[in-house]
Amino acid sequence: MTLTDKHGRVHDYLRISLTDKCNLRCVYCMPAEGMHFMENDKHLSFDEIEEVVRVAAKLGITRLRLTGGEPLVRPHVEDLVARLHAIPGIEDIALTTNAIFLAPKAELLKKAGITRLNISLDSMNPEKFAEITRGGHVHKVLEGLEAAFRVGFHPIKINTVLMKGFNDEEVDDFLRLSIERDVHVRFIEYMPIGHDGDEWRDRYLSLDYVLERCQALGLTPEPTQSVYGNGPAEYYRLPNARGTFGLIHPVSDHFCERCNRLRLTADGSLKPCLFWQDEFNVRPFIGDEQALIHLFHRSLDVKPESHEMANVLFEENLTHAATLRRMSQIGG
């Protein structure tokens, strides 16, 4: 049994947000005035998440990613990982984290069944990192990264949201990191999720800039397909590099035609698309497998062919209603 939408796209990947809470306040994820986080009892319980995943696995979902907010602010995440890892049909469980709390948890998570890590790191400069995250300490992230290496996670990917005037001057440093360490740096275009007006548009920068920096440095990137993962990145390897860098450009060159993912928010909404408002609450159907199966198929029935983020950049009309949630409320 497979989950196939009306555009012929097979979905085998579910991203699960464990919480909307985060210990950082990144400028692209939350507004300056902060967020009103949901009460803990509004989060799906581990039992509820496990039940949804069991049904999803029967429908052909084989790969999971745990996100937030920051998933490691939720206690005992490793216990949930072990439960999901034991579900027949689940082959791969990845984790996206800001790595502030990763160092003491890395070995537990690996033993529980996390197969791959994505670490969010938008700047390696302590002052710039603190500015982007509104008070975070980059040395904690770097400690988490070293712990991930030490316990043997592979591959390790670093997610870097590129923002004009914030961290574009560090592209060279991240490219150098991909040469010196066995990591996969993925530059991600700033997306208009939950934003309105010119704030987002003024910070947006096409990822062509990364290739321009390669050229300016006299480096010739070679396309590579050697990086395992579920995402839409186009990967390149620089001469004599131990790692790679990737480009994820949902705005300038969207990848919707090969989308294979659904999202489950921390409060239990199944979202067929990151950008659009459509979502379906699973909570009323917990305990009814057939109803959950129907809900999965219903979510795919309304999934549009494209997210149209480029329309926001060029101030063009949208064909659907865009989400009102911020990125931290969706799970990325």
Automatic annotation (TrEMBL):
[4Fe-4S] cluster 2 binds at C256, C259, C273. GTP binds at R15, R65, T96, K157, R261, L262, R263. It catalyses: GTP + AH2 + S-adenosyl-L-methionine = (8S)-3',8-cyclo-7,8-dihydroguanosine 5'-triphosphate + 5'-deoxyadenosine + L-methionine + A + H(+). S-adenosyl-L-methionine binds at Y28, G69, S120, M191. Pathway: Cofactor biosynthesis; molybdopterin biosynthesis. Its cofactor is [4Fe-4S] cluster. SMART domains: Elp3 (SM00729). InterPro entries: Aldolase_TIM (IPR013785), Elp3/MiaA/NifB-like_rSAM (IPR006638), MoaA (IPR013483), MoaA-like (IPR040064), MoaA_NifB_PqqE_Fe-S-bd_CS (IPR000385), MoaA_twitch (IPR010505), MoCo_biosynth_MoaA/MoaC (IPR050105), rSAM (IPR007197). Residues 6-220 form the Radical SAM core domain. Binds 2 [4Fe-4S] clusters. Binds 1 [4Fe-4S] cluster coordinated with 3 cysteines and an exchangeable S-adenosyl-L-methionine and 1 [4Fe-4S] cluster coordinated with 3 cysteines and the GTP-derived substrate. [4Fe-4S] cluster 1 binds at C22, C26, C29. GO terms for molecular function: 4 iron, 4 sulfur cluster binding; cyclic pyranopterin monophosphate synthase activity; GTP 3',8'-cyclase activity; GTP binding; metal ion binding; S-adenosyl-L-methionine binding. Its EC number is 4.1.99.22. It is an enzyme of class 4 (lyase). Keywords: 4Fe-4S, GTP-binding, Iron, Iron-sulfur, Lyase, Metal-binding, Molybdenum cofactor biosynthesis, Nucleotide-binding, S-adenosyl-L-methionine. One of its GO terms (biological process) is Mo-molybdopterin cofactor biosynthetic process. Monomer and homodimer. PANTHER family: MOLYBDENUM COFACTOR BIOSYNTHESIS PROTEIN 1 (PTHR22960:SF0), MOLYBDOPTERIN COFACTOR SYNTHESIS PROTEIN A (PTHR22960). Belongs to the radical SAM superfamily. MoaA family. Catalyzes the cyclization of GTP to (8S)-3',8-cyclo-7,8-dihydroguanosine 5'-triphosphate. This is GTP 3',8-cyclase. It comes from Tumebacillus permanentifrigoris. The lineage of its organism: Bacteria, Bacillati, Bacillota, Bacilli, Bacillales. The gene is moaA.
